[in-house]
Amino acid sequence: xxxxxxxxIGLLFMGASYVIYLRSIYKGKxxxxxxxxxxxxxxxxxxxxxxxxxxxxxxxxxxxASALISFGIAGIGYKMRDEIIVGKSDKWAFVLSLTAIPLxxxxxxxxxxxxxxTLIDAGGFYPTYRKSWHHPEQESVMxxxxxxxxxxxxxxxxxxxxxxxxxxxxxxxxxxLGLIALIYxxxxxxxx
Length: 192
Hints:
Helix content: over 70%
Shape: globular
Number of helices: 9
Number of strands: 0
Oligomer: single chain
Distance between the termini: 50 Å
Radius of gyration: 16 Å
Largest sheet: none
Order of helices and strands: HHHHHHHHH
Strand content: under 5%
């Protein structure tokens, strides 16, 4: 029963995070980078399937829901693409993320797949980190904070906590907190 409770808490944090993020987009304050959100959707979907393969249980449902919503936000970001500068480095991060599927296929190992998607996901944060460095006001700190809590509860909700099931959500917790720190730092620097 405890895993189900952690799953519900994780889903609530996820829902709150995305509601805040979507409201911020609607109000014109947040401009999601379509490449980052597509990368996050793709890698989270792979992470979900890796969790399932290693007995992640009901806690894996948080990753599944997060992947679907990430693809939706990528679509919104794509529609706003005229308002977002897409650099060459963003395109390279996007292409790198697409290598995740064939790498998983060729390695044939859930562990190596999770290690690879964790590394690729860190690269997938690059476009949003770069955008936030120049325009920290274009991201929702509260949304990423709640998203970090979502990943914390994802780990607690897993039926089997192993490197395969927990490494990816743990790295997402760290990258979310890193983005928050970057945004606060840049807002402070730009104010002075």
